[in-house]
Specification:
Layout (H helix, E strand, L loop, with lengths): L2 H14 L4 H8 L3 H8 L7 H11 L3 H6 L5 H50 L4 H28 L2 E3 L6 E2 L3 H6 L2 E2 L2 E5 L6 E7 L6
Antiparallel strand pairs: 1-2, 1-5, 3-4, 4-5
Helix pairs in contact: 2-3, 6-7
């Protein structure tokens, strides 16, 4: 997907409808700044807004992602290419999120240990020791919550029995016994419990 090409296509379609950026933004419940970013190729519309945008511009999602009007004979081929590109972009984004999870977990652990050591080793009032320790634990708990959210959303878990890949609920990830990113959970497909590994792709390669 070419963001510049898609942005120019959005602008051309908007103008053909005799709409200003502000008018299109109002129809979509956004700001004209968001429309401007799309049309300049600085960002792409979120998946959640694509259908509404296409409806307003009288185009298909496939045409939006391609950045041009499509003839019927080219439609299916281009749809497959767009789907592959979107899948690749999601996998790359998931890899970055999982790397951020490791960084966040490491930083929060170091921060907690540092405050606990300071409270234990330095001379200070009792109330200050408590504040340091509580602050460290609050930051750690918040960081772990976000780490779990990332682990739930980024990538998929693969069942050891049927090899079904899926995104579990947050509560499943939260309460599942685990070793690193491998968690003991119930597969929604075969309904069996197993140690399930985190994978990036939705389908086996």
């Amino acid at each position: 997907m070419n963001q510049i090409k898609t942005g120019k296509f959005i602008a051309d379609c908007r103008k053909s409808k005799n709409m200003t950026q502000m008018q299109l933004a109002e129809k979509l419940g956004l700001t004209d700044r968001a429309i401007s970013k799309w049309e300049c190729g600085k960002s792409m519309p979120d998946a959640s807004i694509m259908l509404d945008l296409c409806k307003e511009l009288d185009i298909s999602v496939n045409e939006l992602l391609t950045g041009e009007r499509l003839e019927m004979k080219d439609y299916n081929k281009q749809a497959e290419e767009n789907l592959l590109q979107m899948t690749k972009r999601k996998e790359e984004a998931d890899k970055r999120l999982l790397a951020a999870e490791i960084a966040l977990g490491t930083i929060s652990t170091i921060f907690l240990l540092t405050l606990v050591l300071l409270a234990a080793l330095l001379p200070m009032e009792v109330w200050l020791r408590i504040v340091l320790i509580v602050t460290g634990f609050i930051f750690f708990i918040i960081a772990i919550y976000f780490c779990l959210k990332i682990e739930q959303k980024a990538g998929y878990y693969e069942c050891e029995h049927c090899h079904h890949r899926y995104v579990p609920s947050f509560s499943s990830v939260l309460w599942a016994p685990h070793m690193g990113r491998t968690r003991y959970m119930k597969c929604p497909h075969c309904h069996k419990h197993s140690w399930q590994k985190k994978v990036i792709s939705e389908k086996e390669e």
